[in-house]
Amino acid sequence: MNPDIEKILYDQAQVEARIDALAETLTQRYQDQFPVVVPVMTGAMIFASLLLQRLDFKLNIDYVDVSSYEDNAESSGRVRLLRDLSHDVTDRPVLIVEDIIDTGHTLKFLDQLFASRGAKSIATCALLDKPSRREVDVDAAYIGFEVPNEFIVGYGLDYNGLYRNLPYIGVLKRSIYE
Ligand code: 5GP
Ligand code: MG
Ligand code: MG
């Protein structure tokens, strides 16, 4: 285990089993829907690639990049769009793929953006949910795991650009960011 990790919450086998189950649910929901699947970079990259290969329906892959954290462990509540879609989502179902839903600001921002463009439906699949931190009400339809109010890394989630490649979901030691 990486020495900066306090504890492992979910190991690789647990995560991949959960992704199998999510993919099965999504495959039922999106048969004949032809959605645009939109991972939010960079945190969702690893989760999205594992999920996408398990989705058995016709889809397009796009992505957005947003920024809300300014290189620290506290959310600012402000969301900026750094990279927009290349697909037109008018009358298309949109499936947002996120690493974690924390305050909910990112999701709310993306929801309003795609709604304003006339998306046919908007749903989110997030690897992790930290409901204790929610500041705005958002509807995350598909969740991998609920996590406690700790700083999580691994499976795409970073601290200052590090730890994204860890093949488990872990809690970062407080001494690293305090
Ligand atoms: P929001 O607060 O807008 O719901 O979450 C915004 C983003 O903050 C998430 O997509 C994720 O990139 C980052 N974030 C929130 N909580 C954590 C966490 O525990 N660990 C890491 N690495 N990133 C987090
Ligand atoms: Mg994110
Ligand atoms: Mg981050």
From TrEMBL:
UniProt keyword Glycosyltransferase present: yes
CDD domains found in the cross-reference section: PRTases_typeI
GO CC annotation: cytosol
Catalytic activity annotation: GMP + diphosphate = guanine + 5-phospho-alpha-D-ribose 1-diphosphate; IMP + diphosphate = hypoxanthine + 5-phospho-alpha-D-ribose 1-diphosphate
Cofactor: Mg(2+)
Residues forming coiled coils: none
Domain Phosphoribosyltransferase intervals: 9-159
EC number of this enzyme: 2.4.2.8
Keyword check for RNA-binding: no
GO biological process, one term: IMP salvage
Swiss-Prot/TrEMBL keywords: Cytoplasm, Glycosyltransferase, Magnesium, Metal-binding, Nucleotide-binding, Purine salvage, Transferase
SUPFAM superfamilies: PRTase-like
Family: Belongs to the purine/pyrimidine phosphoribosyltransferase family.
Function: Purine salvage pathway enzyme that catalyzes the transfer of the ribosyl-5-phosphate group from 5-phospho-alpha-D-ribose 1-diphosphate (PRPP) to the N9 position of the 6-oxopurines hypoxanthine and guanine to form the corresponding ribonucleotides IMP (inosine 5'-monophosphate) and GMP (guanosine 5'-monophosphate), with the release of PPi.
Protein name: Hypoxanthine phosphoribosyltransferase
Annotated source species: Limosilactobacillus ingluviei
The organism's taxonomic lineage, starting at the top: Bacteria, Bacillati, Bacillota, Bacilli, Lactobacillales
